[in-house]
Amino acid sequence: MKKNTMATAIVAGLAGVAGIANISTAVNLNPDGVGQVLLYPYYTVNGNNLTILSVVNTTSAGKAVKVRFLDARNSREVLDFNLYLSEFDVWTATLFSQADDGPANITTTDTSCTVPGIESGIFQLPTLPSGQRFFPFRTTFFTDYTQPALTAATRTRDGYVEMIEMGSIDTNSFFGDSLTHINNRPADCATLERAWLSNGIWTATAGAEDVDAPLGGLFGAASLVNVADGTFLNYNADAIDGFRTTSIHTAPGADFPNLTNANSAVAGVVTSYVFDRGRLITSNWLTAGGRGVDAVSAVLMREAVFNEYAVDADLRAATEWIVTFPTRRYYVGGTSGTIAPFTMLFANAPIGSLLGNAGCERVSPRIYNREEDTFNIFDFSPSTGQAQLCWEANPLWFQRTPQAITARAPITGAVGLQGTGAAAAPFVGPLWTGVPTYLQLFGIIQKTFQNGWLWLGFYDLNAFNAAGIPSPLNRPQLVETGVVAPVVPDRFFGLPATGFWALRVENQNARPGVQGFYGGAYPHRASRACYKGAFAASAPCD
Fold it and tell me: Cα–Cα distance between 372 and 379 in angstroms, integer?
């Protein structure tokens, strides 16, 4: 039964759910990179890196945008503020650290308005020797782990970013006049800051004054810049469009909006559009209890991600992958257990533990070289008995030889943990995951791949365990909630993920006495799997 005709078969009280697929907007991952929500899979200030962020407003209306930084371990918020863009505006900022054991900070010379003001403003912020203001990331609330490296300021040094449009602002309105640029500066950013004081107009009106429904039209990018090496690795932010039809404009520091706040013109339900091999999959999701996030997860669902790698010795090549789960915190952070498709709760010691340790999600890797040769990868480094990913944003370091767990990843600078925070084993491993490009048997390396590609499965009925015995990876599905019988719900197999491949190569003789470093970042490719019932044995989703 087609979903756009199902209203004739549904009770009157749910007719709105049935008809939602006919409205013009739905949550979707915009292939053109423009939308209401921007997801930046990774930032880092480790290993001499800076991270440069940008966001562009392509519309003729002003924008109120929630900017939120989340740590790479458990998506703990380490900084958020409000950004106000004028029409056709661009905002840029730089993340940096002042010491190897210090927090990340953000600074900008861009004059677009933020609350609190970073470039200038009515609130006091620390300054650099040049007098330039900066905003330190928060470090005072890490209580989810006991390991020192996961409770210290260093935990803020890598993570990922979400920017969510809270609403549009007519440039001819009172607040629109304040944020609109005159002679390359907004007219009055201080007015926006005062509006969120205890007696301010936005505080009094719950952010409603002059703020209309979001219109989308945002795009963004980020760059990992290593000044010492001279490398510049840039990527585009993922853009989710059709996220909301009403404004939700909150004060800096507020928990909302976040990815649970998807809504539509029909109360209590939101639609997702997923494009899969020439088909449009239309699914409906109930939003009560924060489950609007399921629509976001649906558009990010991957059966597997795949990309290339290169660790060529003669190129001194280094490869890292970033694999980020932007919605995971809404499926594993509760006290009543996990919610599908995730299977493991946050845990105190997620890496280096015994097989099946809580906190880590099993994955299924298949590695190939460029000439069709392959071997099974049963385990990642450090050894846990199976291949698994333990964090929200996972740096995967492709290794031509085994590396010490205290080593620093060569591109992102992700570091090893020092100390366990526990009285006895199991130990806690590094913040990166090691992907072997070598086959080791009986303690001897039998073969090594210099380059090729990796298939990283999140759902794989052909997976093996560390003993080489078939062990299907058949995690629970993300099941469509906004349908009633006789319509059969869509079932998405895999995990909601994003990320990219980072590559760096080195020329030791770029010119006499000079080394040359080169780098690039390439988004992951992916496959999707959505069926009405059993995996690959039932009708595909529609």
Answer: 21
